Amino acid sequence: MTFLTTIILLGIFFVLTKSKPTPEWKQPTASFPKNWKLILAEKVAFYNALTPKEKELFEYKVFEFLLNHEVIGVDVSITITDKLLIASSAVIPIFNFPEWRYPNIKEIILYPDMFNEHFETEGNNRRILGMVGNGYMEGKMVLSKPALHLGFENETDKKNTAIHEFVHLIDKLDGNIDGIPHLLLEKQYSIPWIDLINKKIEEIYNNTSDINPYGGTNRAEFFSVASEYFFERPKLLARKHPELYHLLEQIFKQDMDEMNLHLKRIDISRNDPCPCDSGMKYKKCCGMN
Predict the structure, then answer these.
(1) CA-to-CA distance for 106 and 166, rounded, in angstroms?
(2) Range with the lowest mean pLDDT among 29-38, 82-91, 165-174, 179-188?
(3) What is the Cα–Cα distance from 159 to 27, expressed in whole angstroms?
């Protein structure tokens, strides 16, 4: 083989094996659909607690997430409500981080029920409601569809499976899922945060805590479980665990206790103002669809 031939072959090899360019990040160019606004108002309490301007930002972030991530169903149909609830779960924790993206997730896969650690929907040990994939499942999240919906329907249980899994992704972005989100947590809070996690896990072990016992598994699970509590029952968390509430407030840059008065889903009747802010009654606007 001549030197020239070697150079040519090396060049061909480089062209064939070089990594593909990262797909261009898509941003919304169309208006947020009116029927999507209605679904958010009926299903997502966090959305209803926002000001009109904040709602526009939330809608933009939800739309942006859906343009850049695929939602797939396994033995289950996918509806726009499913997609909006998943996107809302992604946006809620990072709402006050304007440039935030999830580079470590491409697909969200919905299952019809619980599954096991091998992502199997049949057989024994199917107790998992949500999981962030590793290995061949890297870049994927698996969620139980019933658990996704229950997280937004039950406003008192301090649980939201989808938010739990997106908090794991936030935690993972610094290279480790260890309960210490270095990208969000300012340095002066790191030691107090670790000390508090250890203290709160000990309380769980001693059965002296109202925090979901699953949070006692390890620091990573505690962070996700505590975050669910923070976004689902902020006023209760602030009263029962003020130090934990304060540190989560610093991490997520959100005063959820103040929002708590407005955290509710909306049951819309025909004569109510339409949630799409058209100024018309619901029956004359989105209710006609």
Answers:
(1) 12
(2) 179-188
(3) 31
As a whole number of angstroms, the distance between CA 128 and CA 182 comes to 27
CA distance 107 to 235: 33
Question: Which of 92, 91, 176 has the alpha carbon at shortest distance from 132?
Answer: 176
Quick one: pLDDT at residue 17? 36
Confidence check: pLDDT of 227 > 50: yes
Report the distance separating Cα 17 and Cα 144, nearest Å. 37
Q: How many CA atoms lie within 13 A of 276 on its CB side?
A: 20
Task: Tell me the pTM.
Answer: 0.85
Tell me what pLDDT residue 20 has. Answer: 45
